[in-house]
Amino acid sequence: MKNSRNYKYLYTQYKKTIKRNIFYLVVLSVYSSNALTKVTPPNYDFSLDKVQVFLPGTKLSEIQKKYPENELMIKEDGFITYRYYIEHIRYKFPLLVQTYNGIVTDVFMKLPSYFLHNVFHQSLINRIGPQDKYKKIEEQAIYIWSNKKNLKHTYFASCTITCFPVYYSVEQVQQNYSKQYTTLLTKFNASESGLLKSLSQ
After folding, report:
1. I want to staple 82 with a disulfide (CB 3.0 to 4.6 A). Which of 70, 98, 178, 193 is the partner?
2. Which helix (H) or strand (E) holds 159?
3. pLDDT of residue 89
4. Phi, psi (degrees; rounded to nearest 5) at 147
5. CA 142 to CA 96: how far, in whole Å?
6. What is the pTM of this model?
7. What pLDDT score was predicted for residue 118?
8. How many CA atoms lie within 13 A of 5 on its CB side?
9. pLDDT at 160
10. What is the pLDDT of residue 180?
11. Facing residues of 87 across strands?
12. 105 neighbors 97 (Cβ within 8 angstroms)
């Protein structure tokens, strides 16, 4: 009788151990599956089509149809700069548009830091081809497309733990504006001016 009770006890403990191990394996399997799931970057589905309406040469009236809300930022020497906001997912970020006589002269967009550099850079390459110029200093880099259909595209990125876009600017290559004309890129990127100068040399 004693041996029989010991056997039952050991068998009961054995079944508990097996059940416990199966439970742990299931939990570990679920955790591993979630851990290995591909993380989708926030800007994976951001389309440059959202920027198309703001490109140089566009009439301000055309922008107003799609983006009726704006904020007047600067008005001098006939040039007027407006601030618009582009929404993506649950975020929105500013885009500055400079105009002259109701026509866009250039655009400057401050990009969200939660965007991934590789994704945004590739989207530019897919749209306008590889950049003509590239310069990297420490953890900052600038990319320039010198002349794409009379438009100069400038993209600036930086890295900390990850690499992220900082700004994107588009201006006309050939234009006949007055001598007072200064691009938004020149006005608003003083901190990166050294990188720009080194690239133009």
Report:
1. 70
2. strand 151-159
3. 67
4. -155, 100
5. 19
6. 0.71
7. 86
8. 2
9. 85
10. 84
11. 92
12. no
* DSSP string across 2-31: HHHHHHHHHHHHHHHHHHHHHHHHHHHHHH
pLDDT for 123: 85
At residue 99, the pLDDT reads 95
Contact present, 191 and 185 (Cβ < 8 Å): no
**Could you give phi then psi for residue 194, rounded to 5 degrees?**
-65, -40
Distance in angstroms (rounded) separating the CA atoms of residues 63 and 168: 18
What is the full DSSP assignment across 84-151? EEEEETTEEEEEEEEEETTEEEEEEEEPPTTS-HHHHHHHHHHHH-S-SEEEEETTEEEEEEEEETTE
**Cβ count within 10 A of residue 182:** 15
Phi, psi of 112 (to 5 degrees): -65, 140
Assigned token pair, 1: 């009788």
Q: Of 85, 86, 92, 50, which Cα lies nearest the Cα of 70?
A: 85
Q: Rounded to an integer, what distance in angstroms lies between the CA atom of residue 23 and that of residue 17?
A: 10
Using alpha carbons only, give the angle 179, 189, 147 rounded to the nearest 5 degrees. Answer: 65
